[in-house]
Design brief:
single chain; mainly alpha; 2 helices; 0% strand; elongated
């Protein structure tokens, strides 16, 4: 796989969860009655993926900062 194709693929994957949240939120607003419940699972899954990604990024940053601090000490 070429480097450009790989970067495009990674960019699309990075946008997948936020777009899932956006699409399911829009669906939740536009539908009425019991059919609105069908928008909840994708909304919860997308939100969970976004929050998981944020937590992992924070954990990685903390580990890097700790390792840099121990390298100086």
């Amino acid at each position: 796989m070429k480097e450009r194709e790989r970067s495009v693929l990674l960019a699309l994957l990075a946008l997948a969860a936020p777009l899932l949240v956006l699409l399911s939120s829009l669906t939740l607003v536009l539908r009425q009655g019991p059919s609105r419940l069908q928008a909840l699972p994708p909304l919860l899954i997308g939100s969970g993926l976004v929050l998981s990604s944020v937590a992992a990024r924070r954990r990685q940053r903390r580990q890097v900062l700790q390792s840099l601090g121990h390298a100086d000490g």
